[in-house]
Amino acid sequence: MSDPMLAEMDHTPTSAARFLGILTPLLGFRMRRIHNHLTRSFSERLGDQALRPGGFSALGLMAANPGMSQKMLSDELGQDKATVVALLDELERRGWAERRRDVADRRRHHLFITPAGETALAWMAREAVDNERGVVAALTDAEAHTLLTLLDKVYRGAFPTEP
Description:
Elements: H1 4-9, H2 27-46, H3 55-64, E1 68-69, H4 70-77, H5 81-93, E2 97-101, E3 109-113, H6 115-136, H7 141-157
Antiparallel strand pairs: 1-3, 2-3
Helix pairs in contact: 2-6, 3-6, 4-5
């Protein structure tokens, strides 16, 4: 490796027994590793009520943005249109969300969470907080706030041309 920073990081362990080698400086690897752990344990907590990936986030976004478009939801979730349509089909089947046609443009739908969806979302939100409690406990309150702020900044950096 010709990059001195990468060469130095190759030998920096993340724990007493593990070396990450060329993965050491990669944000994506580190985020994916944490994401995989949290997603797996969250799904286990939800049991037979577990949703496909993005379901909880979709409900949360619809609750926060009543009437949002499918495109907006797709953009916020970072998922393609077909994946979001399948996700919405599942949420509607469960009675947790509904799509309403735009009266001005029949090709467009507005998304809403139902009362049953609000109940499910409240339960899942409590489970999500409990699921993350052990991970977040490794940080002080100030560090947790800083981490969330930095992650938002990194996310905005992923889309530099958007407002």
